[in-house]
Amino acid sequence: MEALIPFSLNALTLISILLMVSMGMAIIFGLMNVINLAHGEFITIGAFTLVVVQGLGGNFWLALIAAPIVGYIIGLALEKALIARIYENPLHAILVTWGLSLILQQVIQLIFGASPQSITGPFPGSIDILGVAYPAYRLFLIAFALATFAATILVFKKTKFGLDLRASIQSSEMASVMGVNPDKINARAFASGAALAALAGVLLAPLTAVTAYMGINYLARSFFVVLVGGAGSISGVAAGSGLIGSLETALSYEIPTTVAQALVLALAIVILRFRPQGILPA
Amino acid sequence: MTTTILNTTPGQITRKQKLGPASIIAIGIILALLILPAFVQGYTLTSYRDVLLFALFALSLDLFWGKTGILSFGHATFFGLGAYGMAIMSIHFSIDPAIVSLVGLLAGVGMAALVALIVGYFILYGGVRGAYFTIVTLALTLIANHVAVGWPSVTGGDSGLIGVPPFSILGWSFADPISSYYLALIVLGACLLSSMWVMSGRLGLILTAIQDDEIKVQTLGYKTPLLLLMTFAASAAMAALAGGLYAAGNGFVAPDMIALLLSTEVIIWVAVGGSGTLVGAVIGTAIVWWLQQKISSINASAWPIVIGTFFILLVLVFPKGPAAFVLDKVKKLRRDKEDDR
Amino acid sequence: MTVTIPLLSLRNVSRSFGTFKAVTDVSEDFGPEELNCIIGPNGAGKSTLLNMICGTLAVSSGSIHFGDESIGGMSGDKIARLGIARKFQVPSVFPSLSVVENFHVSASNALSANELDEILSTVNLSVDRDTTASELPHGKKQWLEIGMALSMQPKVLLLDEPTAGLSVDETRATSEFLRTLRGKVTVVVIEHDMAFVRDLKAHTMVLHHGKVIASGSFEDIENNDLVRDVYLGRR
Ligand SMILES: Nc1ncnc2c1ncn2[C@@H]1O[C@H](COP(=O)(O)OP(=O)(O)OP(=O)(O)O)[C@@H](O)[C@H]1O
Ligand SMILES: [Mg+2]
C-alpha cells in the first residue's frame, strides 16, 4: 500500500506529461490529419523559450505565458510558408515536416550549443501526501496538465473557433458556404497545436535535460498516444496518455526506462492492429 | 497463383524492356566500379567500399518504397540489425572463426527479416498503408535505438562494440581493402541486377498495380498483403546484408547505425536518384556521399540543415525527384528551341 | 468445354451500412445455362450485392455458396481464385500500366504470345496494346476490364454496368459477345439499358430498396405490375 502511492503519483506525472505533449498532436494530427514530424521541435522551442526568458532575468511564470505565444507565432508562420501546401499529400507532409525538424534542431543547437541548458523550475520542495514526500513541482504539473486539458476540450467543444474547425475538417466546401474561411481556420488550428506543444516544453524543462534534441523523445510517443486514444477525438488523448503512461511507469520498475519505452511502443503497434480506430474513437 | 509470380520465364512474359536504359546504366556502373581499384588504393578504397554498402542499403529501401509506394521511415532498423547481428555473434559467442562471419551475417539478416515479417504482418495485414506505415516504421527505429542504447551488456550501449573481425569464410579472408571492396561490389552487383530482373517481370507489374488499385488486384486473385509483406521482408534482409558487411568492414558497431538520422539519410539517397528505378538508388547514394564530403569539410554541423532543406525542396520544387526535374527541364528547353524555329 | 460450373446460390443475403439496409434477404441461383441480369433503380443495392459475391464487402447475414463452397465472408482473393471474376461499375484498370501489362497482371497463368493476341482481339484492343491504360477512352477501358476478367479464365463473370458510356454499336457488340458465353461461363450483368436486357433474353432479377421484387424471364418481368410501377413504368 505504501508503495502504491509513489507509483500512482509517478504514473500520474508521466500521464500528465504525455497529455501535455500530445494535445497539440491531437489537434494537428488527430483533427487536421496532418502528419507533423516537427511536433517535437515545437516542444523544444517551448523549453528554449524558458531558457531565453530566464537568461534575460525573467522567471518561470513569464515563460509559461511567453512560450505558447512564441509557439503560436512560429506555428502560424510555418503553416503559411510550408504546411498549407502539403495538406493533400501525407508523404509530402512527412518529408517537409521532417526536413523542418532537422533544420530546427540544428539551428537551435547552433545558437545555444550542444550541452544541456540549466534552468530553474518553481516549487523546489516536496509536499507530504498520505505520508509520502513527493516533489511539489510534479504535483503542480499534474494539476496544470489537467486544467489545460479541460480548457482545450472546452475551446474545441464550445467556442466558435472549435465549431468552425470541426466544420471545416468535415468539409472545407461546407465551411466556405457557411462563411468560414478554411485556410484561416487551418492556420489557426495548426498554430494552436504548436502553442500547446510549446507550453508542454516549458512544463517539461525542469524535469529533463534541455537540449536541441529533447523533442524527438516525445514525437513517436505522442503519435501513439493519439492513435491509441483514437485520432479525431481530443478526449481520446486522455485515454491514450493514461494507458501508455501507466504501462510505461509499471514496466520501468522492472526494466531500464528506454527498454520500457520501446516495449510500450511495440505494444501500441499491436493494439492498433486489433483496434485501428483507437480506444475512444471520435 | 502467387507461386507463379516469380518463376515466369522470359519467353512467357514480354518484359517491359529486354535491356532497357536502366539495365545498361547498371551494367556500365558495375563495369566501371570493377576497374576502380586500379586507380584508388588503401584507405580511400575502403571508403568507396562503404559507399557501395550504403548504396546496397539504399537499393534495399528502393526495392520497397520505390516499388510499392509505401515509405519506410525505419530502414536503419534493418541495417542496424544486420550490423549488430554480425557484431554480437562474433564478439559475444566463441564461434569457429571459419564460419563466424557467415553465422553473424545470417543472424543479422535473419533477425531483420523476422522483425520485418512480424511488424509487417501487424501493419500490412491490419490494412495499414501509406502514412501510418511510415509512422509505425519510424517508431520501429526509435524502439531499436532505445534497445541498442539501453542494453549495454549485449550491445555495448552508447559506445557500441569494437572488434568485429573482417569478413571471412572458410579461411578466405576479406581483410585487405581490395578484397573487401570487391566483396561489397559483387554483393551490390548481384543484388542490383537480380532486383532489377525480378522487378521487370510480373512481380514488378503487380506491385505497380497494387499502387494503382489494391482492391482490384485482390479481386484478380492475389494476396496483396502477402506480396507487400514479402517485398518488405526481402528489402529488410537486403538492408541487413549491407549492415552486416559494413560492421565487418569497419570493425565496430555504434548506435548511430540504428538511428533515425540514418533512416532519413537513406530516403534522401533514394530520392536523389529517383525512387523506383533501383539503379538510381546507387547513383543517388554516390552523389549525396560526394556532396556530404564537400559540405562536411566546410562545416560538419551544416549537414543536417542541408538534408532538411533538401526534404523541403524535394516536395515543393521537384516532387518527382531531382533526376526527373532535370530531365523535364531539358525536355522543355528542347521543345522551346523547336518552337523558336 | 467439359468443365462443369457449379451453381452460384444466394440465400437470405443481407447487408447493412450502420442502420441502413442496402440489401435485404436476397435469395437467388445463378447458373451458366442462361445469362443473368440484375436490374433496379439507382441505389437499389445492385453493386452492393456483387461486392458481397466477390468478397469486397462482407455479408451481414445470409449465405453465398459456389457449388459446395461457402464463399460468404471469404477473402476477395480466395473467391477470385475459385474462378469468380468481376468488372467494377467504375472501370477499374491499372492506369499506370499498359494494356498488355494489365493483362499480365490479371491473367491467372503466365500468358503466351498467342493467348495474349487472342484476348487482345477479343476485346478489340490489338492496336492499343502498348497504350497506357490511363490514356484509353472510356469505352476501351470498359473493354480492357472485361478482357482482364476473361483472362482469369473465370467460371463466373460478374459485370457491373458494362455498357455504361458505350455507343450503340459498342453496346450491340457487348450483347453479342455475352451471348457467346452462355453455357460456358455463369454471367451476371447489372444493367440499366432495358433494350439491352431484352436483347440478351436473360433471366432477370429486379432489386428495389435492397429487396428482390421480381425474378424470371424478361417477358415475365416486363408484365409484372409491381415492376412496372417502381421501375419500368417510369419510361
Ligand atoms: N460503403 C458504403 N457505405 C454506406 N452506404 C453505402 C456504401 N455502399 C453503398 N451504400 C449505399 O447502399 C445503397 C445501395 O448502393 P449500391 O451502390 O449497391 O446501389 P446500385 O444499385 O448499384 O446503384 P447504381 O445504379 O447507382 O449503381 C445506396 O443507398 C448507397 O448509398
Ligand atoms: Mg451500382
Order of helices and strands of chain C: EEEHEEHEHHHEHEHEEHH
Most extensive chain-chain interface: A-B, 44 and 42 residues
Note poorly predicted spans of chain B.
Answer: 1-17
Write down the overall mean pLDDT of chain C: 87
Domain ABC transporter (chain C): 8-234
Pfam families (chain C): ABC_tran (PF00005)
Organism (chain C): Hoeflea poritis
Protein name (chain C): ATP-binding cassette domain-containing protein
Give a short summary of the structure.
Chain B: It is a multi-pass membrane protein. Chain B has 341 residues and is mainly α.
Keywords:
heterotrimer; A: about 280 residues; mainly alpha; 2 strands; about 5% strand; globular; B: about 350 residues; ABC transporter involved in vitamin B12 uptake, BtuC; two-stranded antiparallel ribbon; 14 helices; binds adenosine-5'-triphosphate; binds magnesium ion
Structure description:
The complex is a heterotrimer of chains A (282), B (341) and C (235). Chain A is mainly α. Chain A is 72% helix and 3% strand. Chain A has 11 helices and 2 strands. Chain A has helices at residues 4-31, 39-55, 60-81, 90-112, 136-158, 160-170, 172-177, 182-204, 216-229, 234-252, 257-274; strands at residues 126-129, 132-135. In chain A, strands 1-2 form a two-stranded antiparallel sheet. In chain A, a hairpin with a 2-residue loop joins strand 1 and strand 2 (132-135). In chain A, helix 2 crosses helix 8 and helix 9 packs across helix 10. The two termini of chain A are 37 Å apart. The mean pLDDT of chain A is 89. Chain B has a single domain (2-6, 20-259), classed as ABC transporter involved in vitamin B12 uptake, BtuC, CATH 1.10.3470. Helices cover 71% and strands 2% of the residues of chain B. In chain B, the strands form 2 sheets. Chain B has a two-stranded antiparallel sheet with strand order 1-4. A two-stranded antiparallel sheet of chain B has the order 2-3. In chain B, strand 2 (168-169) and strand 3 (172-173) form a beta hairpin. In chain B, helix 3 packs across helix 10 (224-250). Chain C has a domain at 1-83 and 187-235: Rossmann fold (3-Layer(aba) Sandwich). Chain C has helices at residues 46-54, 76-81, 99-106, 113-122, 138-151, 168-181, 194-200, 218-222, 225-230, and strands spanning 8-17, 20-30, 36-39, 61-66, 69-70, 84-87, 156-160, 186-190, 203-208, 211-217. Chain C starts with 7 loop residues before the first strand and ends in a 5-residue tail after the last helix. Chain A binds chain B through residues 35, 37, 82, 85-86, 89-96, 98-103, 105-107, 109-110, 216, 219-220, 223-224, 227, 256-259, 261-262, 265-266, 268-270, 272-273, 276, and chain B through 71, 73, 119, 122-123, 125-128, 130-132, 134-136, 138-139, 142-144, 146-147, 149-151, 260, 264, 267, 301-302, 304-305, 307-312, 314-316, 319. Chain B: Its main location: membrane. Chain B: This is Branched-chain amino acid ABC transporter permease. Chain B: It comes from Hoeflea poritis.
